[in-house]
Amino acid sequence: MDRDNGPRVRVPEQRAPEKPGTADALRFTVLGPVRAWRGSELLSSGSPQQRALLAALLLREGRTATASELIDAFWGEDPPSQALATIRTYASRLRKILGQDTLVSESGGYAIRTDRAALDLTLAQDLAGEAEKARAAGDRCQARTLINKVLGLWDGEALASVPGPYADNQRTRLEEWRLQLTEARLDLDLEVGCHAEAVSELTALTAAHPLRERLRELLMVALYRSGRQAEALAVYADTRRLLAEELGVDPRPELAQLQQRILRADEELARPADEPAPAPAPLRPAQLPATVPDFTGRSAFVSELGSRLATAEGSVMAVSAVAGIGGVGKTTLAVHVAHQARRHFPDGQLYVDLQGAGARAAEPETVLGSFLRALGTADSAIPDTLDERAALYRSTLDGRRILILLDNAHDAAQIRPLLPGTAGCAALVTSRVRMVDLAGAHLVDLDVMSPEEALQLFTRIVGDERVGAEREAALDVVAACGFLPLAIRIAASRLAARRTWTVSVLAAKLADERRRLDELQAGDLAVKATFELGYGQLEPAQARAFRLLGLADGPDISLAAAAALLNLDPHAAEDLLEALVDTSLVESAAPGRYRYHDLVRLYARACAERDEEPVERESALSRLLDFYLATAAGVYALERPGDRLADHREPTQYSGLTFADRHSAQDWLYTEANSLLACVRQSSGSGAVRRAVDLLWATKDLAESGANSKQYEAAAITMRDLARSSDDARAEGRALITLTNARLVAGRFDQAERDAQRAMRLARAVDDPLPSCWAPNDLGIIALYQNRHAEGEAYLEQAIANFRADGNRPGEASALCNLSRIHLAMGNTTSAVALAQQGIDIYDELGHALRGANGRYALGLALTQSGRFADATEQLHDALAVFRDSRQRLWEGMATFRLAEVDLAAGLPAQAATKSEQALAILRGIGGEWRRGNVLTVLGRALSEIGQPGRAQVCWREALEIYEALGSAEIETVRKLLVPTLPG
Description:
globular, 14 strands, mainly alpha, 3-stranded antiparallel β-sheet, disordered N terminus
């Protein structure tokens, strides 16, 4: 039978309902314990029977309750002889607490006179009514917000601990209403695309209310839209079996129809049902960059492109591609046209710089992820593969009128997945190459400005007065610029910033043949000549900064890193960088961060190769590497006090930043992640490889974060290859350990084992203590995962001995915790608990927060197997909090999974199912398939125990496919789970 003590929606700490008016106004709650406040003071409401009277009066919402009604509410058909006297006594006591104006006597009964907003129940009813109106008007987001506010008013069971038949009936009524509200909110979740997030909550609710078919229906839809069709069908099979066994009935027609739609893979079911469009739309991206205030000319192109975009509503897809050399004004024109066309695209505008002119063009799948988030898709609902993301993107755009501006494209192949596929949308593309292979595109070739347009642009920036006085000189200037807009803008901006210059001075400077744009027709050389104009006007210190900063890879550079590269103090470096920003040669990405346009970076590097000695170029990059290594090593030391990396890493000549606490250190690490890894990849010079490898070692946390795992692994591969090609066994051994770490995170254990084995051999050959310690530690972990326990025990004992010999106590703690897991797998629970506790003691003594969490994770596993479930839960919850705080998504997901195992072992399968679903969501895209298989196995066990065997079988089949593909030892275990249970 259905039960009323199901899972509760998680709500904030209960507070008295807010009411406008005086600070000492009375307020009441019944959606939880029955309580009364005067202002912020919690009043004593007396005995349970006295609270029962208060509740009965509050639930009448101001109406009078007669004495006979109250006696019936308290005692039903068997009241005591002194019932009326008892009621009067309770009423008198309450009147003293609440005041005679609040609790009044009339018509032989009692009533509480108060405003509606003073009672949480009436406040909830009003909010629920507003939610219904918002949903009827098509505003789903507002409806969801309001319902969540209603559910947030509950604080556990309504009328908690209040006795009497009336309270029992009202408790049942309110719980049913709460469930209906939860169903309504979950329905809205599905309608706005939050199906993946809804699965875990619905799994728990269906376990608590197994006969409530509406919850089953919502769970089927959520699973289907999450790509889990087989599980959705299994929910139906489980429901049909349960209804037949418990009630002797079939599922209701709506549930059977839903099953048929899932079997047919109904496309309409894959998206929310049609409803009136919300006004305003829940999410309407407006990502267009600002148009320049001095946009000039290009009227024919503006008209041509504008007309094309205006017809998008009646065409399948309007695509216009603008091509031209760098600096010709493609982006400026496209942004201006897009702003003018905004009225034709009321559902929003998307924009991305595809970085097609650089060495690393933007990946389409990354861009699609950004676009889907901008369109309101939850992270957990974004697929992993390019094809799946492109399909979801087109589906999301269906029925909407959105303009997509794809700026700086590399080629047609890069943008095809980014194009909309339905009427009403349009794409505007800019690129240095003509998109002749982009089927159906309207191609526009953008040339340089006409002389009249060029002079007009120059005049708008410099001013009519100065140009009017020297019109011929101004014509000479724009002619020397080759009528290229970017060159004109740079020249005019420099002149506008120098009031002592005349236009003739600028023209005379450009008359020098070395600054002329004769190479205009030689493609990129035109861009180089254009930038030469601005570069030639820089002060010597500014020019040096411009050249050297362009050497650094990465999307941008911080002020501190730039100061290190330039060998200047931060204030001097900032002055130079801001001067470069003023010339438009450098952009300020954010306060304290700077970046180059792709083409400007190429030009800056060309200047460095021409104007700087090789030793100075190498020194600049060496200082940058030193800065990153010194700072990252400091972050590493904060996270791992006592670790020996500080003693064994390569020395640095340039110091790094210091941090007051681990949180600010982590902020720096994750902010600088892309720039750090780019610095590693380009560190191929003499003497740089070892430092770059140590920088990778110091930033191991990036591999486990999930956000930078792939980039970290790519950098590790690069450094391994560089070290190997230069016959540097020490650097290769360390690089292999960083690569082992990355592959362990990805769940590729065979590759990780090969890397660790070679690292150990190289470490022995060159007597390097770092990989000598960590290689056997990693090999022990791998052996654990592959069920080679005796071998793993030997590796970890060797690691412990090596760590102790090196005086590396944190490393010793790590190996002890890993050995604990080996002992646990071998059935030695007592020693497993002891070893994990030894590791934790070391971590705590040294002040290791994050690594101490790893120790508590290991202890939680041992306590689980020892049957000490409460202790295990405490340890794992403590670890989980630290993992979340430290942005370690892999370990956050694994700790959540282990808590599911504890719940399952403790006989709490509904909670285990919920946590397993949460773990699957957290581990999406990280941890590898083997870990996913483990979570699916536990989820299947939990589902089986809460009466959903069909869905459990689906989970186990998926896990079996994973294990068979990997050749894992868990194959037989899952096969036994899949053997059908014979009827008894």
